[in-house]
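Q: What would this chain look like folded?
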Amino acid sequence: MEKVCQNWPGEAFDDTLVNPNSWKEFEENAKAAAAEIYRLPDMKAAKAKVEELLQELEVNKTVAVGGDEYPALAKLFSDLKAEGKEIYTDKFEIAEEVPTADLGISTAEFCIGETGSLCVDNYSYEARVTSMMPITNLVFVNANYTTKDVDTAFQVISKVFDKGYMGFVTGPSRTADIERVLSLGVHGPNRLIIFAMESGLERGSN
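A: My prediction, written as structure tokens:
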């Protein structure tokens, strides 16, 4: 597997491909797919909402990725640990703790208006298990990063991966294999919560 760039916004985004114009369409389609969306102005508001969710969901254990790429997330995770929250960010700890984690916090690179999907860079093992194994997945994404459709998304992705592992996430896990009855959470999280950040979610230097 090979990634030909590490910083999606800095190396792969183009204003003609990735911009805020498709946000409304994304929001409508994501909500139709049962995603929960909170558009937040900054990381201060995000921290308050995270703490609210931890209490609401009665979370005992959290695994989280994204701190290596986003300094603001690294600070958020550090602050939560300092407050006594059980949160694991080291890749080896994540591998050990994820089977019993209640919440997985991860990131997405951009939103796709046409399908209400998130484009997620799951190149690393810890990113994959954090977003797929806990019953609830909380995803941070920059609200200004949207593409119109899947074709445009693949134009962006082609600048990042020669070979690799990434995916589109559209709402929580769902299946209707058994008697055509829709069930959520059978093959992954039964809740997808999106924090769409208006500011504060910028990548650090690589």
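The domain at 2-197 is CATH 3.40.50.10420 (Rossmann fold).
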